[in-house]
Design goal:
Largest sheet: 8 strands, parallel, barrel
Strand content: 15-25%
Order of helices and strands: HHHEEEHEEEHEHEHEHEEHEHEHHH
Number of helices: 13
Radius of gyration: 19 Å
Mean pLDDT: 96
Shape: globular
Length: 352
């Protein structure tokens, strides 16, 4: 049965219930049926040297990663690797376990291929997530750890949460992402300010040699976004991820008045923010583009604009398990068509 046939049954389920079923299935396959992972790998992996890059001193077999938020608790890493992703970002993880916001808090809009979520960093907490990742890391593909403060942690104490998290995961990932751009934790986006960014990245560089990246919101004014990124880079950030979900509810017909929107309707807003970031910082740091990427052509547009890597999330819900394979296959075709021997040659070509 093809994924498009399955979707009509999946979409009858509450979105969060459907996600939990996938997570449970991933656990069963990884723990009791590893031969299925081999089958999936043979079907969905694209092994092509044209797509391979060395970033942060590690090999990324392809540039398509699963964004944070899908595998919050690091329970689906083997499954996602078998489905052809070139790297995986687990989290967002907080120091203490938390339930997240009240349900319902996850909504799909199939006609717009978009998602609205108000999850609120629901996760098992750093101790349990650490125990899971310890069994895997180092892994066959790069892993990123996306970290955020607890909802009940005050802005004044937020730095302590990030300190705990960096110390916990610095040896269990290939890079760390500071998440202060989710709209679903009250006050979190207020941390996107010069003073906190300075303090945070000064701290992070004193705690670890692993690259620490900043993930920004798409709703900032472009000058503010560039200024914040500039400060982060000055004080030790090794890359920028643009962007998180948006709170511009006018993009999505019948949107709820809360939470963050991702998917196809975010595509141009996310791209425009990435353009501003790439204009300012291409060639100076690692740039990762995320938001509305659904096919190889869009991934290639981001790469040519300056993205070293791209990430997907919502498109995986609507396109299904072949998404990474389809993007990578098309990317390899486009790279060769334009005469590139390796993806690194295409990164930022439209900026030159």
């Amino acid at each position: 049965m093809q994924y498009n046939d399955l979707k009509k049954y999946i979409y009858k389920l509450d979105p969060e219930t459907a996600h939990n079923i996938v997570e449970f299935g991933a656990h069963i396959i990884g723990s009791y049926a590893p031969f299925l992972l081999s089958y999936l790998r043979s079907r969905y992996s694209v092994n092509d040297t044209v797509l391979s890059q060395n970033i942060f001193g590690v090999n990324f077999p392809n540039p398509v990663g699963m964004a944070a938020g899908f595998d919050k608790n690091a329970t689906m890493i083997p499954l996602l690797e078998a489905l052809g992703f070139g790297y995986i970002e687990y989290g967002t993880v907080t120091p203490r376990p938390q339930e997240g916001n009240a349900k319902p808090r996850l909504f799909r809009y199939p006609e717009h291929e978009s998602i609205q979520n108000a999850m609120g960093f629901n996760n098992d907490g750093m101790t349990k997530v650490k125990e899971r990742v310890e069994k895997l890391y180092p892994y066959k593909i790069p892993l990123g750890a996306n970290i955020g403060k607890n909802k009940t942690t005050t802005e004044a104490d937020a730095i302590k949460d990030y300190e705990q998290l960096i110390n916990t995961f610095k040896d269990l990932c290939d890079y760390i992402v500071i998440n202060i751009s989710s709209p679903n934790t009250p006050g979190l986006r207020d941390l996107q300010n010069e003073s906190f960014i300075k303090e945070l990245f000064t701290l992070s560089t004193s705690l670890t040699n692993k690259p620490v990246l900043l993930k920004i919101a798409p709703d900032l004014e472009s000058k503010s976004a560039v200024d914040i990124c500039s400060i982060a880079l000055e004080y030790g950030a090794k890359g920028i991820i643009a962007t998180n979900t948006t709170i511009n509810y006018s993009l999505l017909p019948n949107a709820k008045g809360f939470g963050g929107i991702s998917g196809k309707v975010l595509k141009e807003k996310s791209f425009q923010m990435f353009e501003e970031i790439a204009k300012a910082f291409y060639g100076q740091t690692t740039l990762i583009s995320v938001g509305g990427i659904e096919n190889g052509e869009e991934a290639y547009r981001r790469i040519r604009a300056g993205a070293n890597l791209v990430q997907v999330y919502s498109a995986f819900i609507f396109k299904g398990p072949a998404l990474a394979k389809d993007i990578n296959t098309k990317l390899a075709e486009l790279l060769r068509k334009d005469g590139f021997n390796n993806i690194s040659e295409a990164v930022g070509v439209d900026r030159k």
